[in-house]
Structures are given as C-alpha cells and as structure tokens.
Amino acid sequence: MMGSDANLEDVVKLWYSIFNGAQVISNRETPVHRDNNSRSEWYDLLTTVGPYQEAILELPGVGLRFRYRSGTVIGLLRRVLSHGVSDADGEGYVWHIT
Fold it and tell me: Span 18-97: which CATH code?
C-alpha cells in the first residue's frame, strides 16, 4: 500500500488521485518496449477507445497476445513486462494511466 511506504507517506497525504501520470497515444503502432518511468511494483492501466479495427497487444516475454478492441482495459506492470500494440485501421486512442 502506498501510504505504508515511508518514502511516499508525505506525498500520499497531499496527492488527491490514485494515479500519478497519464499518457495518450493516438493512431500509431507501439513497438515492443518497457516503460522505465513506472515503478516495477505498481500496475498501470491501459485502455483503448475509438472506431478502429481491432489491434493486438503483445507480451512477448510471457508469450501472450490479446485482441485489443475498443473499450479494453488492461492492468499491466509496464516496467516489468515488455509490451507492444500493432497498427490498426481507423481512429484509436490508448490511455496509459500510472
């Protein structure tokens, strides 16, 4: 729990959101990568919206591929797991909430 971490205790008292960052990616493929700006013990939420043909979310380190349809929400350790999203036809937006 964040409040029990001595390094974060004062910050948690002031911060009114459970998230500390947001990123929007629009209409593009994201090559397989890891996100070093996240903490390895925290889940990040990835969600996608928009009228597009389905994309594929790939986690090659664990050998998984998922349909990444509009409205999908995924909790992921982005710093730990390599991940990437294929290109898709249409308008699509991905929100990464950390």
Answer: 2.60.120.10
